[in-house]
From TrEMBL:
The active site is at 198 (proton acceptor). The keyword Oxidoreductase applies. The lineage of its organism: Eukaryota, Fungi, Fungi incertae sedis, Zoopagomycota, Kickxellomycotina. Its EC number is 1.1.1.37. Substrate binds at residues 105, 111, 143, 177. Keywords: NAD, Oxidoreductase, Tricarboxylic acid cycle. It catalyses: (S)-malate + NAD(+) = oxaloacetate + NADH + H(+). InterPro entries: L-lactate/malate_DH, Lactate/malate_DH_C, Lactate/malate_DH_N, Lactate_DH/Glyco_Ohase_4_C, Malate_DH_type1, NAD(P)-bd_dom_sf. Belongs to the LDH/MDH superfamily. MDH type 1 family. This is malate dehydrogenase. Residues 26-169 form the Lactate/malate dehydrogenase N-terminal domain. The keyword NAD applies. Residues 171-333 form the Lactate/malate dehydrogenase C-terminal domain.
Length: 337
C-alpha cells in the first residue's frame, strides 16, 4: 500500500508553491495537440515561470488543456480551436508564442521536403501573430526552419511590425544533441554552440569549443554527421511512426524558459536562427548564431569564437548558399501568396 510520506508531501508543496512565486509569463503554443505540441505544453505547464498558458490547434487543444489543467501547478491552461476566432483569442496578451504546428517528417524526407505542406500553415499563423500580438517573442519550431523563419519575418515586415530581436527559429535541439553527444565522449556537461541553420549540412556544431574532446579526424567527422542528421536517426528508429518529438519538445521548452528568464533580467546565452547580418555580404540575411538574450529578446549576436577550426570555417562556407536559397524560398512564398 502506498504511504504518503513527509518527503512526498514536501515535493507536492514545492511543485505548487514554486509556481505561486513566479511572475507568470503568458505563453501560447500553436499546434499544441501534435506530437511535439503535447509534451511541449506539459513541460511549459510544469515551468514555474509560466503563469498563463494558451493552447491552440485545429482540433483537440481543449482536450489537451483540460488534461494539463489537472496538474497541480498554479499556472492557468486554456485550450482553443478554430471555432469562434479561437486563434485570435489564444494569442491575446501573449508574451511568448511558440509554434510547433505542421506536418512531421517521415522516413526518406528531409526538412526541406516539408515546405510545401507547412508553409501555408506557418504563414496563416504568422499573420495572426502579427495582427494580435506583434510585440510577443515568436519562437518557431515548424520545419523547415531555414525557410519558415524568413517567411514569418516577411509577414511581419509586410505588416510593419517586424522586430528582429523578437523572432527566433528554434535550433536548440541541435545544441542539445551536440552537447549530449560530447558528454557521451567526455563525461562532462558542456555548452556546444551550433550555428548556421537547421537542416543537414547547414547545421555546424562547433566541437572545437569542447577542449576535453579528443577525437581522430574520422571520429570527429562521424560526430559532426550524427549531429547534422540526428533527426534522421530518430525518424528511422521510429520506423515511420514519428519524428524527434520528445527531444524537440524539450529543446523548445528550454528556449521558452531562456527567453522568459532573460526577460526578467537574467543574462542568458543560447543559439538560434535569426535575422543576422554576419554574412550579409554573401547574400545571407538569416543565420543561426550564438545569442545573448535580454529583456527585449535578442540583445546581442555574439561574434564567432576566434579559435574555430578550418573544417568548421569550410562547413560555414558550404552552408551559406543553402541558407540563402532556403530563405528566398520562404520570402517568395509570402510574396506570391
Amino acid at each position: 500500500m502506498f504511504k504518503f510520506t513527509t518527503a512526498s508531501k514536501n515535493l507536492l508543496v514545492r511543485s505548487f508553491s514554486s509556481s505561486v512565486s513566479a511572475q507568470g509569463a503568458k505563453v501560447a503554443v500553436l499546434g499544441a495537440a501534435g506530437g511535439i505540441g503535447q509534451p511541449l505544453s506539459m513541460l511549459l505547464k510544469l515551468n514555474p515561470l509560466v503563469g498563463d498558458l494558451n493552447l491552440y490547434d485545429i482540433a483537440n487543444a481543449p482536450g489537451v488543456a483540460s488534461d494539463l489543467s489537472h496538474i497541480n501547478t498554479s499556472s492557468t491552461v486554456r485550450g482553443f480551436s478554430t471555432e469562434e476566432q479561437g486563434l485570435s483569442k489564444a494569442l491575446e496578451g501573449r508574451d511568448v508564442v511558440v509554434i510547433p504546428a505542421g506536418v512531421p517528417r517521415k522516413p526518406g524526407m528531409t526538412r526541406d521536403d516539408l515546405f510545401g505542406m507547412n508553409a501555408k500553415i506557418a504563414m496563416d499563423l504568422s499573420i495572426a501573430c502579427a495582427e494580435v500580438c506583434p510585440k510577443a517573442s515568436i519562437l518557431i519550431i515548424s520545419n523547415p526552419v531555414n525557410s519558415l523563419l524568413p517567411l514569418a519575418a516577411q509577414v511581419f515586415k509586410n505588416k510593419g511590425v517586424f522586430d528582429p530581436k523578437k523572432m527566433i527559429g528554434i535550433t536548440t535541439l541541435d545544441l542539445v544533441r551536440a552537447s549530449r553527444f560530447a558528454f557521451e565522449k567526455t563525461g562532462k556537461v558542456q555548452f556546444i554552440p551550433v550555428i548556421g541553420g537547421h537542416a543537414g549540412t547547414t547545421i555546424v556544431p562547433l566541437y572545437s569549443q569542447c577542449s576535453s574532446l579528443k577525437l581522430s579526424p574520422e571520429d570527429l567527422a562521424a560526430l559532426v554527421h550524427r549531429t547534422q542528421f540526428g533527426g534522421d536517426e530518430v525518424v528511422q528508429a521510429k520506423a515511420g511512426k514519428g519524428s524527434a518529438t520528445l527531444s524537440m519538445a524539450y529543446a523548445g521548452a528550454r528556449l521558452v524558459d531562456s527567453v522568459v528568464r532573460a526577460s526578467q533580467g537574467e543574462d542568458v546565452v543560447e543559439c538560434g536562427f535569426v535575422a543576422n547580418d554576419t554574412y550579409a555580404s554573401e547574400g545571407v540575411d538569416y543565420f543561426a548564431g550564438i545569442l545573448r538574450l535580454g529583456k527585449e529578446g535578442v540583445s546581442e549576436i555574439l561574434p564567432l569564437p576566434e579559435n574555430i577550426t578550418q573544417l568548421e570555417k569550410d562547413a560555414i562556407k558550404a552552408a551559406l548558399p543553402q541558407l540563402a536559397s532556403a530563405a528566398k524560398k520562404g520570402i517568395d512564398f509570402v510574396t506570391n501568396n
